[in-house]
């Protein structure tokens, strides 16, 4: 029992050492989180009270949120299921309530918009959703109508109960698309049969009885959605691009209804060739008739405000050019906001725009309503405009505008052109990222430059040294002055504004530039310390399904050459690639000549070979195994020729199950070296992972209990390959794990995890592989760890070569139960690899778990022995614990975490971590505690006073001793 | 259960080379025996000066199908021509490649066996020469028994530029051949852990001494200490200066 006690004590201390929680006063000191909502699909201002500052948004990421319109921060956010199930089909706002239709018309929900609480939720009948509309009666909005493919239902706004549901007549042939009501007791449902006729069905609001059903000949009609709208008192207005004319139809006319044909030419108008005209009308209140005025868009930049009066259409104002238009209503007034390029000569791509308000009923411009807006030259094109109008004290109309651009950015503008806030919603979908060291400050660079240059005379050198030291002195005095100046100000007023000019590397390289690539093709440069976006660059023409690979070709270390990043953008369908080369610190596109890539790219690798300007060589292999080097200067090609016989690469074809290795030849062609074929009928390759190139392993082996050394098998070319069985039956499904040498194609280890299935998350580092899978038999998530050892003797300790390691390594494996599913897995990384490793596990709950690698060690003994205790091995326990103090993001959950990026800092103890998904969270972790940093509360006073005290004590006692000696000598 | 526990209780669970069977082959061409060799697979090699692979027959692998996969090799001597060629290739740091067809090792699948590609591997020719043609060839199969890869290494594996007497050393291959099938990865070892816990519980149950709490064990030390502290505290409060002084004196 003594041994059990000791073992428990050992385990306790191990746990004690591993646990690292955040103290309350450390919250937000090293970490920050930013929350996003994704690309906005629906937006509405809460306009029911003057003081309201809410903006309600529903997004493509299935999120419903409320944004503070003063600051751009989120009041609250509801994250629904991803995919079709949580898709928000419609958003209708009335007063305090927001009604959402979710999941292709499956759910109807009403939210209280002040606090974001759910009022009610109703499950609706199946059927594909068409549209939803608020319905009023006698000036009060009471109902919401939901139109599906074959039925219409009316629900009470107050509790969601269904008032009635009716099947639509002939719904198998007629496409019903629009619901219209003006609060007079009828609900019109409009449907069409393309190129034939439209159907108008009027329902009684009280009982759903069909009051009227007419079908009107309309052989020109194709769709009701954008080319038709109800204008004025129940007049359906459609535009036909083919005959270039307008059609009007009185919906509630007695007797036989017929379209009235109004050619555009009679209004002196003409649609631009190839453009489908759009009708934009507005119904300010659901219980009242729509406005008589409407916009007709005749070209990408041409809008016309028209008025329908007594069946006749009259143009009010022609806006040419105009980018965007929107109606806004406040009180009884409705205004039209028009955004137009400021400089009339340069049109669509002009960067300065202005927004003006126009009176909707006359088309007159309202005075003092101009807002100038400068479009970001690195951003996307304009997409949509939302306007919040309000009445000022003098009864004139004021407004604020929200501009949505193609790069998913939201800009909130205030008169006379102040940007109140910008939300970069592209960051809700980060695909890949890198962290780049910041450059040295000007003075540091000055010193560096001195060493870099060739000597030009003694005197010049001395002068240069003196001048650079003067500059240093000046900078130091400036720094002291700033310290002094800041010290006098109250603490809260000291703001460390980070701008691109003040960027400089700090002492321990803890502040870095985060280069983030988002799925929409927008690149961001974010300061890792504060989370400030320092630059952004939108890549136009990026396909929505493109794959990205970001590589750092030249780091910041090679002054005066600027750092250089390269983004490889690959179209997933065609495989064609293109390169975007830029400076990661400033985001500027580089003007280097790019190689032409006419063939689909199969593989890309960054070689350790450097050009004269310290650019690492990027090698691209196309589908005919031809190699393109970038940069491809003479120097590079010469180096490639020399190194050719030692440059190997591999290709994976998961549809065939082949892994093949190639070698570069002197003429930059390639030759096939090896081939491993895993039959795709049995198992499919799902994951191939090598090790990170910037990883350092400090210790070559592990000291065992008997003082012998177990050497690690550190093969930098090792690939971990995971396969999943094609048979998905829980009894027969399996996961295959292969360790394959990427140079020789030798299968080092081959294991099969039976009764398991994916998705597999895997980390491959040092001499270990950790993976997580689903156990189909026990229905639980499990972790497994594989470690490779050479044994107690090293074959060749000086250098590792895949071609000269004949003995296969010993492979140890152990598995553990993990009590949670996981979203992503990554390992910490430090400068020299001395610090013990932790695994960072992104959980679906939004927590990031820092799991000590010590718990995932195949040498954990089942029976504790003297030797295992000597080695500090934790006794085996089948279940992996999840301790809440291991959550590095305490309560700052990261929704839908998709990836974790780790980067070493200048401090060996510290690893920088960025978790991204819907949110972005940045923090630092200290896997072995901060062994190389003094604590914040370190008592400098005490230690210096003790030192000083000792010094004086020595001086005094020395003096006393001298006196004493002298006295003794006299005696 | 016991059979499971046996290998796992050892500290070092080496999971490699479970299904291996080493066959050191002889130089002689062994007559293929119909009984113990179910089928044979050609083993081809290539070593060319221009490094364009032209595969020739090196020998054949005789595979015994069924549950216990075994393999043996029958191969001939290198001809005079080949020997010189190999030495030449080695002198320019060329490659020695081998290949085997993709086949299934399962005996019952032989009828549907067809060659739809090869598995290739290579080793530096100089390493083969300097190791005096002693190579280790491993065939890897998947769960279904199909060959998925082949690997060749020489022992020793380095090229040191040692001069080799061709007549003596480059005569015959000294091949070690093995088949590697996937090992079954372990699952969390819950049964043993529970058993261990139960044993511990039982032991505790048998030995009531263990169950005593901290206070139960050390009451004889704690009670006098608490009493003493209480006494001294009470005296401090009740008594004034003189008695307090006495108490303090006592406590010293």
From TrEMBL, chain A:
It holds the Pfam family EMC1_C. Its main location: endoplasmic reticulum. Residues 765-970 form the ER membrane protein complex subunit 1 C-terminal domain. Keywords: Disulfide bond, Endoplasmic reticulum, Glycoprotein, Membrane, Signal, Transmembrane, Transmembrane helix. It is a single-pass type I membrane protein. It comes from the Eukaryota. The keyword Endoplasmic reticulum applies. One of its GO terms (cellular component) is EMC complex. GO terms for biological process: protein folding in endoplasmic reticulum. SUPFAM superfamilies: Quinoprotein alcohol dehydrogenase-like (SSF50998). Belongs to the EMC1 family. Component of the ER membrane protein complex (EMC). This is ER membrane protein complex subunit 1. The lineage of its organism: Eukaryota, Metazoa, Chordata, Craniata, Vertebrata.
UniProtKB/TrEMBL annotation, chain B:
It is a single-pass type I membrane protein. One of its GO terms (cellular component) is EMC complex. Its main location: endoplasmic reticulum. Keywords: Endoplasmic reticulum, Membrane, Signal, Transmembrane, Transmembrane helix. It holds the Pfam family ECM10. Residues 1-25 form the signal peptide. It is found in: Endoplasmic reticulum membrane. Coiled coil: none annotated. It comes from the Eukaryota. Belongs to the EMC10 family. Component of the ER membrane protein complex (EMC). This is ER membrane protein complex subunit 10. The lineage of its organism: Eukaryota, Metazoa, Chordata, Craniata, Vertebrata.
